[in-house]
Amino acid sequence: MTSHQEANTATGPPQSLSFTCNACHAIFVYQYCGRDPPFCSEVQLKECAYVSRDPFTFQRQAFLVLGGTCCICSASVCVANGCSLFYSQRFCLDCVREHRGRFPAEIQAELAKQEKKKA
After folding, report:
1. What is the DSSP string of 92-118?
2. CA distance 79 to 107
3. CA–CA dist 4, 87 (Å, integer)
4. What pTM value is reported for the model?
5. Using an 8 Å Cβ cutoff, are 52 and 30 in contact?
6. Which residues, listed in sequence order, are joined to residue 84 by a DSSP beta bridge?
7. What is the DSSP letter of 32?
8. Any long-range contacts for 4-8 (C-beta under 8 Å, 24+ apart)?
9. Cβ atoms within 10 Å, residue 79
10. Which of 32, 68, 102, 107 would staple 90 via disulfide (CB 3.0–4.6 Å)?
11. Long-range contact list for 26-32, CB < 8 A, 24+ apart?
């Protein structure tokens, strides 16, 4: 099974896969990686993402986007503010810092604000 397939089998219960965020090293369990979560047929994601059913609701079509792959370095990263950002594509913050001049002023200002909080 590739990482871009649903982690469900046709004959058995849903399987869970996991990915580790390269930035914060947290481990996340997901049921699907891709753009078209099969448990939410009305949605097509703008990125290939790690997706899980929302365990906090009984709504059948509810899901959570847990993370994705950096479009520059291919690192798996979660959606936490300190780990990645989505600006038409998913970027890890290391790549954002390295290529900060290619991002709009608003993104650069937000990055500077985050770095100031860390200091």
Report:
1. EHHHHHHTGGGS-HHHHHHHHHHHHHH
2. 16
3. 21
4. 0.80
5. yes
6. 92
7. E
8. 4/33, 4/34, 4/48, 5/32, 5/33, 5/34, 6/31, 6/32, 6/34, 6/38, 7/31, 7/32, 7/33, 8/32, 8/38
9. 18
10. 68
11. 26/78, 26/80, 28/52, 28/66, 28/67, 28/78, 30/66, 31/6, 31/7, 32/5, 32/6, 32/7, 32/8
Tens-place pLDDT, residues 74-89: 999 999 988 999 999 9
Residue type for position 69: T
Q: Are 90 and 69 in contact (CB under 8 A)?
A: yes
pLDDT single digits (tens) 36-58 = 998 888 889 999 999 999 989 88
Task: Locate 89 and state its tokens.
Answer: 């594509």
- Supply the pLDDT for residue 118: 72
Secondary structure (3-state) at 23: coil
Q: In the beta sheet, which residues pair with residue 67?
A: 50, 78
Work out the number of other CB atoms within 10 angstroms of the CB of residue 27. 10
Q: Find out whether 60 and 6 touch, Cβ atoms under 8 Å.
A: no
Q: Which amino acid is at 119?
A: A
